[in-house]
Amino acid sequence: MNKTKRIFSIFAAASLCTGMTTLVAAYTENRALEEPVNLPGIYTEKKSKSYFLSETIDLQYDNPFLKKDTIDWKDFRVSSIKGVLVYSPTEYDEYVKQIEKKPTPHITKESPLYVMADHMKYSNVSGDISASGDVDVKHVTDSFATDYVYGNTISKKIIIPGEVVYTTPTNHVKADSATYDGVTTIGHFEKMRGWEQGLYYFAGDSGDYNRNENKMVINHAYLTTKHALAKVPDYRIEAERIEIYPNDHYTAYDIGLYLKNTRVISLSKYTGSLIQSDSIGLWTLIPTPVYDSDNGVGFKNSINIPIGSIKSGLSFNSKFAYYSKSGFKPDIGFRWETHPGTFRLHYVKEESVVNDRHVWIKKSPSFSFDSRKFYIPKTKLYVGAGGEVGRWEEGHITGAHKMWEVYLAHDPIELGPHLHLNWRIGYIKDYYAYNHAIRSNAYYSIDLTGGIKWFTGWIGYTNNRLQGETPYTFDTYDIKKPLTFGAKVQITPRDAFSVAYTYGTSNHKLEHLDYTYYRDLHSFYGWIQYRQKERAVRLYIQPKDFTF
C-alpha cells in the first residue's frame, strides 16, 4: 500500500485520545500491560556498526532538503469518529502553525504527542503503549518514523529500539535507536547521522537533541558539507564533541581538520557558522592552488574567527595568498555583519579587477561598508550603497582615498523558461589625496543569459561614463565600454568548454578571446583558461559549498 493510502486508512480507523497523547491506529487493543508489548516479527535488532567514518554515508543520496516532498498532507480530511477527536493532517498543520507562533516544547494538552501506526496496544491503567508497522510519532514540528515503538503516556517517555528517522524543519537524522523524554524534551540517539539544512552532513557514535535549547550534541563525530561527502569525505572536521545550533552555528571541541585521511590542523575548540551565506567555517583553511602567467603558481586560504557569539556578527578575518612571482598577499582585519550591511577594517594587498595588468595595491588600512539589498516594496527592484576610506600605496604614488557608490538593480527577469535578463545602474565617486584628483563614474550594465540542457549562451554590455582621472593604475579601466558574448557547451556530466569574446565598443577592437575548460572535481570546481591574444594561462579551483 502506498504512503498516501496508508495515512488515510490510519485516520479512518480507531483512535484513543489521552489528553496529552493522541493515538491513531488501523488496529488497537485495550489491555492491562505490565510491560511494553514486543510484537513478534515486527522488530529485529540490527547489528551495530561503527559510524565514525566510511559507513556513515547511507543518507548521501537521501537529502530531503534538495527535493520536494511528494506527499501533500492537505489532501486528507477526516472527521471525528464516535465522538473522539481525530486530528487530520490538515488540522495537524494548523496546530503546528499555532505552536510555531507560541512554542510549547513540553508535552501538554495544548501540545500533545501524536502516535500513528498500523497496529497499537495500550493500557488505560498503566499508560503503557506499543505500536508497530508504519509508525509515526509527532511532537510539535518534530517527527520520528520507525517500525516499532513503546513507551508510557504517564511518564511521557518513548523508546525506539530499532532504526529511526528523525526530522525537524532543519534536520533529517537517521539513528540505530532512540529515546524521547517529553518532560525534558530531550531525544537521545545511538549511531546517528544526518543533514543540517541539507548542506552540512554529520555523523557520530551517539547524540542528544534538546528541543528547549534547540541544541544538538554529537559525540565522537565528524562534520562535512554535501559535496564533500564520500566513503572518506574530501574534507571534514573530526571532534570529540560537536554542538549544533540549527540554522545558526556549531561549536566543536578537540578537533582536527582533515583532507581525506591527512590531518591538516588541530584545535582545542572552534565555532563556525551554519548560515549558508556566511563564510565563518574551518573549511576555508584548506589551501587551494591557483596559477596565472603573470603571478605564477600560488596557494590561497582564509579563516574567520568569531569574536563573541556568532550572533554578534563580529569576526577576525584573514586571507592569505602566496604566488611564486608576486609573493605574499595578505588580507587581515575585522568584519562586522549588521542588518544594514557589512563593515570591514583591514590591511590588504589587493589585485586590480578593472584591468588586466595584474597591478597590486596596498591598502593600509581600509575601512569599508557594503550594504545589503533593500527592496522597494511590492517589487523586485532593490537599491544598495557602499563606501571606502583608506590609504593607498602603489609604487611611489601614495595617499588617502575615499569613495562612495549607490546603485539600483532588479532580480533576474525571466523572459521564458530558458532565458533571463539582468540589469544595474549606479554612480561611483572617488576622491584622491594625491594631486587632489576626483573621478566620477555613472554606469549601467545589462546582460542576457539563456540555455537548454547542454548549451548556455550569453551577451552583455557595460557603459562606464567616466569624468576625471585616477592617479593609480590599480583602478584604471582598460575597457570603458565592453561588449561580452560567448557560449558554453557541456561535453560530459563533469566536463564543459566555453569560448568568450570581449569587444571594446569605444575603439572597435577585439580585446579578449578566451577559451576555458571546466571540470567538476566532486567537492570543487576547476577551470583552465587560455587568453589567446595575451597568450596567458590561468587556473582556478573553487569550492562548491563555501567561499574564501
TrEMBL record:
| Cleavable signal peptide | 1-25
Organism expressing this protein natively: Dialister pneumosintes
Query: Would the keyword Transferase be found if you checked this record's keyword annotation?
Result: no
* Protein name per the record: Organic solvent tolerance protein OstA
Reading the lineage from the top rank, the first entry is Bacteria
Q: What is the lineage of its organism?
A: Bacteria, Bacillati, Bacillota, Negativicutes, Veillonellales
Q: Which InterPro entries does the record associate with it?
A: LptD
Keywords associated with the record: Signal
